[in-house]
Write a structure and sequence with these properties.
The chain is mostly helical. It has helices at residues 7-10, 12-33, 38-47, 55-61, 66-78, 100-121, 125-143, and strands at residues 53-54, 82-86, 94-98. It has a single domain (7-148), classed as Arc Repressor Mutant, subunit A (Orthogonal Bundle). It has 7 helices and 3 strands. It is globular and about 55 Å long.
Length: 161
Amino acid sequence: MPNDQPFVGAYLPALLAQASHLISTEFHAIVQANGLSVLEWRVLATLADSGPINIGQLAQQSVSKQPTVTRLLDRMEQQGYVERLSAAKDRRLTLVRMTRAGDKMIAGLIREAHAHEASVLEPLGAKRSKELKKVLRELIALHRPALTAPPAPGAPDRKAN
């Protein structure tokens, strides 16, 4: 496709990676100043406002590998931030949920994350910001491996397409 941009300036994965890196780096400084690693933040943020989820889903949503998340959960469980439980329908499946201590630990960071997001999106305006998020959720749903949770609300079902 002809374009006036060099390849990387027009290639979607490169643009997404650059935007993610630039925007995330700004907030990661705040996370680390609050005594959490980036992965600890991602895990706790993923668990915030969600019910228990399995470790595979948690790893995928926190953009990490399952063995890394499992080791991190060992430490976070000892700190009292998360707990593991067996799934009611399949006791072989381990679910993870945040504890009250974990929720208390990141409540302030969640507020700061919302403020950071607002400052990032403000130049785009409300309509473009909403559309950007919608399109990103659709892309995620279309490319998410099949073993994960159902698509986000409002995202198309990959099987239906």
